[in-house]
Amino acid sequence: MKKIYFNEEYCMACRLCEIACLVAHSKSKKIIKAYKEEFPSLTPRLIIEQKGPLSFAIQCRHCKDAPCVEACVTGAMKRGKKTGAVSHDREKCVGCWMCIMSCPFGVILMDTKEKKVATKCDLCEDVREPACVDACPNEALVYKEVKGSEKK
Amino acid sequence: MKSSGKIVIIGSSVAAISAIETIREKNKNLPITVITKDRDLFYSRPLISYTNFTDEQRYYRDKNFFRKNNVDLIFGEATIVKNNSVVLENKKNVKFSELLIAVGGKPITLDIKGIDGKNVFTLTTKDDADNIKKFCKNKKHAVVIGCGMIGIKAAEFLKGLGLNVSIVELMDKPFASVLDEKSGKIIADKIKKHAKLILNNSVSDIKENQCILKNGEKIPSDIVICAIGVVPNLDIAKKSQIKTNRGIVVDEFMRTSRKNVYAAGDCTEALDILSGKKIPIPIWPVAYRQGAVAGSNIAGIAKEYAGGFVRNSVDVFGLPLITLGLSNDKSGEEIVFSDEKSKVYKKAIVKDGKIIGAIFVGDIARAGIFTGMIKDGIDVSNFKNEIFSENFGYIYVPKEFRSKEVTPIEI
């Protein structure tokens, strides 16, 4: 499977990835509408971190032995057999936050605008390249095949 | 270790399911039989207290999980392991080449007058929840004994059924073993908005319509839920001469003292990385991991259990609470963030440069980073004063400790 990786040397914390993520997960998929009508109830599924000169954008790593899948008591968090990605089912989620407790990257977020549920990167499911990667002007975010996982 | 015969699993909750998934990932054909007491196999135990759920919403895996994974089911109680067979209550023998005991925990019962009354329940299975629901019709007052994880969920359950709830706790605060004074007070204040909370007290006599407390106080109660906690279920292990201590003793491969017999989940005691000792850690993620490790070894692929530590996340009447590790330890350095107005309280305990425990009340965002730092034993000396700053994140984790999941090898 393909995963999103970051290269902190190239990241300038321009936050374009965050905007792209937000818009990609909005109803309208249009930047102005998304910000005018849906923001701030929209939650980007990635986090931009900065410390001194360093910065990067981090989102769900779709880990091999995913701690969130282990910790999920409802079965909402699970690994897709075909894709290998970790997916989250809003309908099943009860907002117990076991996944937030478990994710060592801290990239599972709360979505509390309707029912309280967890939310995270879905790799923009049906598109060729995730929106954040597509928006990154400096190739600090890359979308590439995981080594040794070609079979999966 | 390579399996050739028939795998038998006793139990059908998370450790069993995780073992089945792991075995099936590696081998589609090994015959697997599950022996279970649960009539409704598919529900997730932590969800039994949600009153507004349909049965469908309580499913952990889908309804066809066992059929799809080609698992035979036997509904009944396993009583003893003899030679290479499990003997059922009806004396039937079920032969195995490898056995996994995943029988979970048993609710702790108290020696109180009236505890065997018809109005006294425990809440760990869906049958318990269904029985309580039936019993609660036209009832007004409930008492929950114990203010921990199960106690809170029991109280929410009873509130959801429309009863007035009193919680009686022996200690001076809720979740007494994992909360400190301040977080205990915030949680207690929250509980008090929804239920009567009686601390430093205990029930000494349960009558049909009231409970009499140790100090003589009488509180109305039509139903009592005993929610002190659970202990590992050692019944079958003890009868079968399998080594037990507080839990079933297992090695790093989840093997018990008996040949070809494995154990996983709440019934075991396994390595606690914070104390270096083997103790029962009856939490969901540990059960899942142990089940997966046992499953892998049963399927013939050696895998070691690296150990775990106690941690929990619970929503207390809408207030999120996460505790990690030795969260009530008094011997380490305490790093605290507290905002009384917004009911946010965070604390980490640092010892020898490492975080050994943490508490998050009200704001639990990114708490998992702390779980990761505890697990990996990361030295936080250089940035410990920044761990609750707004900018804190995974970027603080030293590069050499960052996971391979972050950067591919070729970059």
Report on this structure.
With 152 residues, chain A is α+β, with helices and mostly antiparallel strands. Chain A has 2 domains: 1-60 and 126-152, Alpha-Beta Plaits; 63-120, Alpha-Beta Plaits (2-Layer Sandwich). Chain A has 5 helices and 8 strands; from the N terminus they run βααββαββαββαβ. Chain A has helices spanning 16-24, 31-38, 67-71, 98-102, 131-135; strands at residues 2-6, 46-51, 54-59, 77-79, 86-88, 109-111, 117-119, 141-145. The longest helix of chain A has 9 residues, at 16-24. Chain A is globular. The mean pLDDT of chain B is 94. In chain B, the strands form 7 sheets. In chain B, strands 3-2-1-7-19 form a 5-stranded parallel β-sheet. A 5-stranded parallel β-sheet of chain B has the order 9-16-10-11-12. A 5-stranded antiparallel β-sheet of chain B has the order 22-23-26-25-24, sandwiched between helices. Chain B has 8 helices and 26 strands. The chains are: A alpha+beta (152), B alpha/beta (411). At the A-B interface, β1, β2, β3, α3 and α4 of A face α7, β22, β23 and α8 of B.
What is the gist of this entry?
Chain A has 152 residues and is of the alpha+beta class. Chain A has helices spanning 16-24, 31-38, 67-71, 98-102, 131-135; strands at residues 2-6, 46-51, 54-59, 77-79, 86-88, 109-111, 117-119, 141-145.
How is the topology of this model organized?
The complex is a heterodimer of chains A (152) and B (411).
Chain A: E1 2-6, H1 16-24, H2 31-38, E2 46-51, E3 54-59, H3 67-71, E4 77-79, E5 86-88, H4 98-102, E6 109-111, E7 117-119, H5 131-135, E8 141-145
Antiparallel strand pairs in A: 1-8, 2-3, 4-5, 6-7
Chain B: E1 7-10, H1 14-26, E2 32-36, H2 65-68, E3 71-75, E4 78-82, E5 85-88, E6 93-95, E7 98-101, E8 105-107, E9 120-121, H3 126-135, E10 141-145, H4 149-160, E11 164-168, H5 181-192, E12 196-198, E13 203-206, E14 210-213, E15 218-220, E16 223-226, E17 230-232, H6 235-239, E18 248-249, E19 261-263, E20 268-271, E21 278-279, H7 284-298, E22 311-316, E23 319-325, E24 333-339, E25 344-351, E26 354-361, H8 367-376
